Amino acid sequence: IKVKANNLYSDFKLIGFLNTRIKKFVFVRYLGNEGTITEESIGGVNTNLLPNGAKVLNIDLKKLKLIVNFEDENYILEL
Fold it and tell me: Where do the DSSP E strands lie in the chain?
């Protein structure tokens, strides 16, 4: 599990946040791909910007934090 967690952190980079009236977006880079994810994003299901099975739990625009659940652990990524 520690190796996979390290892979999440080493391969995944938080770039920025965008808030629109409809949705909150997070700009990320993962395995050479760049784009946006939302609170509906699930790796391998509707995005290639997260590891397979990783789910966005929360986007906190005030604190510039992204919370991702990956392999039953929550990871807090900050800008």
Answer: 12-19, 24-30, 33-37, 55-60, 65-70, 73-78
